[in-house]
Specification:
With about 650 residues, the protein is of the alpha/beta class. It contains 28 helices and 20 strands. Helix 8 packs across helix 18. The chain binds thiamine diphosphate (TPP) and magnesium ion (MG).
Length: about 650
């Protein structure tokens, strides 16, 4: 309450209401080592009600994590490590970024899934080297959010017995008493998901919480939710139990009154040594970790190869032979002669790289056959058997994506998951958090334009390419054939950050390339067809529009014009190339420029400039055959030729406005 008061900003209510629960969990039960927050077999803790950030910072400080009292004092100030909402910082014990309600819970489901899968892969009789819990704090808001349904239904189905949720059932959210908008029978709801429910626990009674925690840990077949009745702002004599404590400082007088009411006579930010000593988990944590390390050494003696593999996986390194695997996948695609949808090329790439990547966890939100996300040899995860490497997430795009974030954050796995590009919107905030945290998740988005055809405008993405490109840290690849698809997979795997692979439903012909052009695909944009001398005009295209541009450019060049075609599968990576390379591909002097992409034109103006043109799609699609829709919306070779003819009529070299 002092930190919130000093910042005059923040949320004191939930931290005060959940303090007793936190004390029971963190001061003796949670398996963690403040001296090494990244010990791989630590319990994972997620504060899904991220507005209660001050609770997490207090716990980290008291337990002896490398977070000084100065940081607590500087809560919410620019440059402090105590941001308004917790921001992923593994070196500090912050497992994930939370604040968007419900998503931390879904991350935790992913973490618990990861634990279960890794245990199935690496544990051997007598050697439970992967054996930890995932604990989550959630509030009313998390459980009102739809994603909690997706994630918790999945957790029940997959019997995540080491997932334990503490529900801060305080009956209050921002607008006041939740009775007016949230009357679910939460206990029945979670029973229906197949969870163990420990209802009506007094969250301000440490013994009751401790007993519930023991019962939760004893249940290994089902996840547990402990519904803790608490009082928001507990201890503040005049404000506790009211919405006033949710999201603003208590006020100087109420802070003083609280000190008196709870018998805490100390100055703000001064914690008596004996109190800190009582909380300090460093010795206990170091002992726990060193016991695990000794255990791991014995595991290493018994299973040396598994131990080496476990270390590699938890470091996040790709296999030693990865470079040759990636090269083989690209080479195999370069041999292709038949036209293929890039979603099919993607599957062919997975057939090569999948078996070489035991850390790979595939999946789809119930569109496996359309996303082509399975490959030869994948085995589905089942409720009974966690040794598989493919997850049928069901129709849960948001839950899938947030769970993938949780798996990637846990470590040891590289998740990829598919849906239609148009439904990336359903998952969008999890994509955003993946970008914010820079986690390695691979989003396979197929059916990437009006080219998908008959399903019509509800299923045809228009603005999605542009809107995903607008997200900081995101890279989006829209390959035009098998080679570009293989390169985009390799780039996605080698990147520490999220990647969207945007793939077609319809077949695209393979493009011929020199070895240099093939190597340059990695640069995100490269010259696919060049002309003799300085180009009069540049054409930029991605994905399914590259094959429309190729004949148009070739025909004009044969008639003596000088047109260059640039394939630009990944604008973000191209933009990150050095100036000299970018200039060599897109010479500044050439101002006649045309971009062709079956999507919103917005992302292309930065490349074509004010003298350029964009052949894009600025309206919703329609229901019909893909082969009818492309010409209907102007995506034909003739139209590219017409646009180029218009451009060529313009005087050359106009200064860019
Ligand atoms: C997805 C999302 N929507 C809205 C918010 C804004 N918000 C922050 S806390 C909160 C109310 C949460 O209520 P509850 O979880 O009961 O928290 P309590 O007031 O009990 O601390 C809201 C709407 C948010 N952080 N995330
Ligand atoms: Mg609440």
């Amino acid at each position: 309450m002092d930190a919130v008061q000093r910042a005059n900003s923040g949320h004191p209510g939930a931290p005060m209401g959940m303090a007793d629960i936190a004390e029971v969990l963190w001061n003796g039960v949670l398996k963690h080592n403040p001296g090494n927050p990244q010990w791989v077999d630590r319990d994972r803790f997620v504060l899904s009600n991220g507005h209660a950030s001050m609770l997490l910072y207090s716990l980290l400080y008291l337990c002896g994590y490398p977070l000084g009292i100065e940081e607590i004092r500087n809560f919410r100030q620019l440059g402090s490590r105590t941001a308004g909402h917790p921001e992923h910082e593994p070196a500090l014990g912050i497992e994930t970024t939370t604040g968007p309600l419900g998503q931390g819970l879904a991350n935790a489901v992913g973490m618990a899934l990861a634990e279960k899968m890794l245990a199935a892969q690496f544990n051997r009789p007598g050697f439970q080297i992967v054996d930890h819990h995932t604990y989550v704090f959630v509030g009313d808001g998390c459980l009102m959010e739809g994603i909690s349904h997706e994630a918790c239904s999945l957790a029940g189905t997959f019997r995540l017995g080491k997932l334990i949720v503490f529900y801060d059932e305080n009956g209050i959210s921002i607008d006041g008493k939740v009775d007016g908008w949230f009357r679910d029978d939460t206990a029945k709801r979670f029973e229906a998901y197949g969870w163990q429910v420990l209802a009506e626990v007094d969250g301000n009674d440490s013994d009751a919480v401790a007993a519930a925690l023991t019962a939760a840990r004893a249940q290994t077949q089902r996840p547990t939710i402990i519904c803790c009745r608490t009082v928001i702002g507990w201890g503040a004599p005049n404000k506790q139990g009211t919405k006033a404590t949710h999201g603003e400082a208590l006020g100087v007088e109420e802070v003083a009154a609280t000190r008196k009411a709870i018998g805490w006579p100390y100055e703000p930010f001064s914690i008596p040594d004996e109190v800190r000593a009582g909380w300090d988990q460093r010795r206990r944590g170091a002992a726990a970790e060193s016991a695990w390390r000794e255990f791991f050494l014995r595991y290493r003696d018994a299973h040396p190869e598994l131990a080496r593999e476990f270390d590699r996986r938890m470091r996040g390194d790709l296999p030693q032979n990865w470079a040759s695997t990636a090269a083989a996948a690209i080479a195999a695609m370069a041999k292709e002669t038949a036209a293929k949808a890039t979603r099919q090329s993607s599957q062919a790439v997975l057939d090569v790289i999948g078996p070489a990547l035991p850390e790979f966890v595939g999946g789809s939100a119930d569109l496996t056959g359309s996303n082509n996300t399975n490959f030869k040899g994948v085995r589905a995860l089942t409720p009974e058997d966690a040794s598989g490497n493919y997850i049928h997430y069901g129709v849960r795009e948001f839950g899938m994506t947030a769970a993938m974030n949780g798996m990637a954050l846990h470590g040891g796995l590289i998740p990829y998951g598919g849906t239609f590009l148009v439904f990336s919107d359903y998952a969008r905030n999890a994509v955003r958090l993946a970008s914010l945290m820079k986690v390695r998740v691979i989003l396979v988005y197929t059916h990437d334009s009006i080219g998908l055809g008959e399903d019509g405008p509800t299923h045809q993405p228009v603005e999605h390419l542009t809107s995903l490109r607008a997200m900081p840290n995101m890279t989006l690849w829209r390959p035009c054939d098998g080679v570009e698809t293989a390169v985009s997979w390799a780039a996605a795997l080698e990147r520490h950050g999220p990647t969207a692979l945007v793939l077609t439903r319809q077949a695209l012909p393979p493009q011929p390339r020199t070895p240099q052009q093939q190597a340059d695909v990695r640069r995100g944009g490269y010259v696919l067809i060049d002309c003799a001398g300085t180009p009069e005009c540049l054409v930029l295209a991605t994905g399914s529009e590259v094959p429309l541009a190729v004949p148009a450019v070739n025909a004009l060049n044969s008639s003596g014009r000088r047109i260059r075609l640039v394939s630009m599968p990944c604008t973000e990576i191209f933009a990150a190339q050095d100036e000299a390379y970018r200039e060599s591909v897109l010479p500044r002097a050439v101002t006649r420029r045309l971009a062709v992409e079956a999507g919103a034109p917005l992302s292309w103006w930065q490349y074509v400039g004010t003298e350029g043109r964009v052949l894009g799609l600025d309206r919703f699609g329609a229901s019909g055959k893909g082969s009818d829709l492309f010409p209907h919306f102007g995506f034909t070779v003739d139209n590219v030729t017409r646009e180029l003819a218009e451009l060529l009529r313009q005087p050359e070299g106009l200064p860019q406005r």
